[in-house]
């Protein structure tokens, strides 16, 4: 791995819990161990780098993990383990992400630009240009939830290119627009490339990949199958698609089911041990390899479950709140109850009617 990368992804995994109900999700959040919930590993340890000014294509069959990886790189979702080092602002254009359905097109433009640190004055200056690029007419005044996927894509792309990010991530956004819009986007992407910007381009269209990308990463059911020159990787991927298409319906189903089963059965501890062993081999004099790998795996990660200390603290706060409520209801002073705790069960007065109390003493 080099040091002058724009994006580095190292040993990145992503686990999704396959909850059946909302209450299962809530229980798992508070429980000490929630491993009885089925796991699904959308990414099983991806390592790659993107160089400054490079356009990297992401290809792979449906459900292979392309969107998960691009969402992690753009900070939309956290990784489960691994290092994600992104040197610059990212802007992601995806068919179904980034825009708030309740807000109008104009409000979305303002929100996204404000989130990127622009001032209202700067936003006013470029508003007309964004609206003209999106070319969605009066729909710009309507809530985004009423847009077609092509319109969402147009608006998303228009916003993303105008806020001028260092890194542009395009996830299938060109596949839903019409030809005129597609050409406009391609021109803009070329302009970005000539300005030396870094682009990650996710697409099922190998023609688009070949036209736009300098290198390609092929993601296959959570693994990085191959990364290399566009020509080489696309050619190998085409061979795979040809082979897959030639399978019988039953064999296709088996191939996909086996891959998904492996994603469910993925053992993160075994993977960490494998990475540790490999690094130890590469760095025989390093006595702290296990510690370094543990740090790389978990230090940059935001836990989606409540950490132990937070659980204990939240529990103590909840007990204190209930205790103070009971003291208040009992009518005794806090010091009195602390002195003689049984007082909490003997209120000083009882309620006999609306706003009327009767002393029990
Ligand atoms: N929130 C989630 N909960 C559970 N599983 C998820 C979640 N998001 C994604 N997945 C699963 O993770 C895997 C990877 O999904 P992802 O959307 O990254 O694939 P993709 O390569 O972008 O697919 P496509 O080409 O169809 O867009 C899929 O099996 C998907 O079902």
UniProtKB/TrEMBL annotation:
<dbReference type="InterPro" id="IPR003593">
    <property type="entry name" value="AAA+_ATPase"/>
</dbReference>
<keyword id="KW-1133">Transmembrane helix</keyword>
<keyword id="KW-0067">ATP-binding</keyword>
<comment type="similarity">
    <text>Belongs to the ABC transporter superfamily.</text>
</comment>
<feature type="domain" description="ABC transporter">
    <location>
        <begin position="7"/>
        <end position="246"/>
    </location>
</feature>
<dbReference type="GO" id="GO:0005524">
    <property type="term" value="F:ATP binding"/>
</dbReference>
<keyword id="KW-0547">Nucleotide-binding</keyword>
<dbReference type="InterPro" id="IPR017871">
    <property type="entry name" value="ABC_transporter-like_CS"/>
</dbReference>
<dbReference type="Pfam" id="PF00005">
    <property type="entry name" value="ABC_tran"/>
</dbReference>
<protein>
    <submittedName>
        <fullName>ABC transporter ATP-binding protein</fullName>
    </submittedName>
</protein>
<dbReference type="InterPro" id="IPR003439">
    <property type="entry name" value="ABC_transporter-like_ATP-bd"/>
</dbReference>
<keyword id="KW-0472">Membrane</keyword>
<dbReference type="InterPro" id="IPR027417">
    <property type="entry name" value="P-loop_NTPase"/>
</dbReference>
<feature type="transmembrane region" description="Helical">
    <location>
        <begin position="312"/>
        <end position="331"/>
    </location>
</feature>
<keyword id="KW-0813">Transport</keyword>
<keyword id="KW-0812">Transmembrane</keyword>
<dbReference type="InterPro" id="IPR015860">
    <property type="entry name" value="ABC_transpr_TagH-like"/>
</dbReference>
<dbReference type="InterPro" id="IPR050683">
    <property type="entry name" value="Bact_Polysacc_Export_ATP-bd"/>
</dbReference>
């Amino acid at each position: 791995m080099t040091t002058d990368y724009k994006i580095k992804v190292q040993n990145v995994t992503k686990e999704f819990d396959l909850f059946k109900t909302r209450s299962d999700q809530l229980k798992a959040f508070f429980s000490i161990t929630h491993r009885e919930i089925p796991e699904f590993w959308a990414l099983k340890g991806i390592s790659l780098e993107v160089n400054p000014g490079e356009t990297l294509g992401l290809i792979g069959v449906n459900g292979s993990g392309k969107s998960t990886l691009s969402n992690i790189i753009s900070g939309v979702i956290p990784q489960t383990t691994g290092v994600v080092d992104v040197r610059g602002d990212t802007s992601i254009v995806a068919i179904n992400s980034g825009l708030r359905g309740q807000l109008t097109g104009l409000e979305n433009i303002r929100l996204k630009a404000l989130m990127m640190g622009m001032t209202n004055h700067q936003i006013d200056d470029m508003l007309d240009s964004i609206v003209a690029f999106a070319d969605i007419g009066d729909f710009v005044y309507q809530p985004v939830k009423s847009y077609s996927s092509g319109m969402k894509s147009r608006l998303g792309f228009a916003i993303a290119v105008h806020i001028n990010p260092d890194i542009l991530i395009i996830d299938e956004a060109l596949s839903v627009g019409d030809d005129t819009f597609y050409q406009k986007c391609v021109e803009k992407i070329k302009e970005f490339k000539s300005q030396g910007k870094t682009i990650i381009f996710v697409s099922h269209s190998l023609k688009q990949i070949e036209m736009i990308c300098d290198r390609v990463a092929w993601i296959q059911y959570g693994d990085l199958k191959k990364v290399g020159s566009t020509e080489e990787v696309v050619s190998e991927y085409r061979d795979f698609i040809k082979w897959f298409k030639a399978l019988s319906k039953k064999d296709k189903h088996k191939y996909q089911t086996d891959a998904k089963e492996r994603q469910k059965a993925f053992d993160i501890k075994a993977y960490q041990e494998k990475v540790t062993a490999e690094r130890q081999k590469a760095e025989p004099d390093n006595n702290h390899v296990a510690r370094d790998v543990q740090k790389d795996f978990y230090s940059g990660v935001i836990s989606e479950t409540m950490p132990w200390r937070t659980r204990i603290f939240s529990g103590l706060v909840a007990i204190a709140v209930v205790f103070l409520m009971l003291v208040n209801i009992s009518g005794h002073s806090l010091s009195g109850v602390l002195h003689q705790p049984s007082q909490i069960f003997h209120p000083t007065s009882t309620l006999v009617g609306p706003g009327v109390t009767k002393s029990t003493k």
